[in-house]
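seq as requested:
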Amino acid sequence: MKKIDYNDFRIYPDTPITSLATSYDLGKKKSKIKKALKETRKTLGDMQNVLYAHSKYSVLVCIQGMDTSGKDSLIREVFKDFNVRGVNCYSFKKPTLLELERDFLWRHYKRVPSRGKYAVFNRSHYENVLISRVHPKIVLNENLPHIQNKEDITEDFWAKRLEQINMFEQILYENGTIIFKFFLNISKEEQKRRLLRRLNKPHKNWKFAPEDLEERQLWSAYTSAYEKAMNATTKDHSPWYNIPADDKPTARYLVAKILKKRMSEFTDITYPESDLEHKINYYKKKIKKEDKS
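C-alpha cells:
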C-alpha cells in the first residue's frame, strides 16, 4: 500500500478547487484496499477506547461533498468498529422552525462531542456558507434584522459568517476538541455515473430526487462556494483535507488513515493511571473468598 502523508491532502488558503484531485491510485486492488481499511478502522476503534478512558479530548469529524460523493457509506465503513457509546453521528438537513429562531451555529453547537467521544457531522455548519450561498433565499428564512432582501446578502456578509465559523472552531479547539474536515471531492462525470446507477437499480431508486438534477446544473456555483469556504477556514488547528472520492474504497481508506495518523500524534492520550494497582491482589483475594462463602 502506498505510504500516506496527510499533509499531501491538506487544503491551504488560496488553493484552487479545480487543482484538487478527484482520483488517487493507492497501487493496490480494491480487495487489498478494503482489507487495509478493515485493519485501520480496528486500530481506530482501539484508539477511541483510550480517548474515552482518558476523557480530556474530543474529536469532531466534518464530512462535506457534492451529492453522491459517498458521505453516508464512508461514515458507515470508517466508524464501523467504534464502540457505539464513543461516537455519535448527526446529519444536518433543512433547519427546523425552532432552529431558525436561533443563530445559524446553535444547532451545531448542541451536537459538538463531549470529552472522550467522537462526533461525526454528515454535512455540517458549512452548509450555511455552501447551499445558503448558492440559494441565498435560505438566509431570508433566518429572519435576520439587517437582511431584508437578497441584495442585502453581500460578500461582506459571507466573509463575516466565515469568520464566525473560524471563531466557533477556535473555541472548540482551545477546549480540547480535535477537528477534522474532509471534502469528498467527486468529479462531475462520476456524479453522472452514480445518478444513473440510482435510476438503473430499483433498490437504489429511493435515493434519487428530481432536485438532484437541478442542483447538478449549479455545479460551478457550488464549486466556487466550496473554494471560498475552504480557503477561508482551513487552519492548522482545523484543517481541510481533500479526499479524492471517485473511488469509494480509496476515499474511505484515506479518511481512516488520516484519522489514525493524526490521532497517533497525540501521545498524551493514554489510559489513566489506576490507584488500585497496589490493592489489586487484595481485591482478587476478597472476590475469591466471596465465592467460597
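The CA atoms of residues 58 and 115 lie 5 Å apart.
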